Amino acid sequence: MGHEVVKVLVVDDEPMVCAHLRTILGSADDIEVVDAAHDGAAAVEAVMRHRPDLVLMDLRMPGVDGLTAIECIMKLDQPPKVVALTTFDADQYVMRALRSGASGFLVKSTPPEDLIGLVRVAADGHTVLSPVAMRRIVAASSDEDAARERAKALVGKLTERETDVLTCLGEGLSNAQIATKLFLSEATVKGYVSRMLVKLECTNRTQAGLLAYDAGLVSR
């Protein structure tokens, strides 16, 4: 039985970049690029029209930028996963995109042979962001104080076990790895993560992982 096809929307103000991504992703049998948009406003419209599973979103675009588009998309009913596209892995925009609900980020120089696999991982709901990259962009954040205060207040709502799970998320562990580390079943971990996201006012695991850094649960 084949894999379910992942519907992808590509957003970039450079038509050549969109064409490049279409070519790479279109070579995979289980990925379909449903459309390409060249600014944030068109991206939001395309999401509502095509209901993609994943959006690859350029952050720096004239007119409505990627950050504004991500915020709008996250307010939709059952929004797609969004992965930010950037030229620099320490781009200040990346932190803002992650806080707005992006599931991760990819640099535009990602090798073609890696891109398809990373898109599949992101579509499955996993974070496309290494712990090392997470530490780097958190350290580069200019709004650390406000983020730290908010994170500590939100983490204060968690039980001790939920805090343990959150720490593991911040370390980049999967549900299976968390289950092994904390001597829990994977189903139990999934339950903890679901409840925790609600308490932390997070839309995904990536945002929760950022909170773990901001609250000081994971060293930078």
Automatic annotation (TrEMBL):
PANTHER family attached to this UniProt entry: TRANSCRIPTIONAL REGULATORY PROTEIN NARL-RELATED, TWO-COMPONENT RESPONSE REGULATOR
Response regulatory domain span: 7-123
Annotated InterPro entries: CheY-like_superfamily, NreC/VraR/RcsB-like_REC, Sig_transdc_resp-reg_C-effctor, Sig_transdc_resp-reg_receiver, Tscrpt_reg_LuxR_C, WalR-like
Modified residues (4-aspartylphosphate): 58
Domain HTH luxR-type: start-end pairs: 151-216
Pfam family, one: GerE
Name of the protein in its database record: Response regulator transcription factor
Domain of life: Bacteria
CDD domains the record matches: LuxR_C_like, REC_NarL-like
Organism annotation: Streptomyces flavofungini
UniProt keyword annotations, A-Z: DNA-binding, Phosphoprotein, Transcription, Transcription regulation
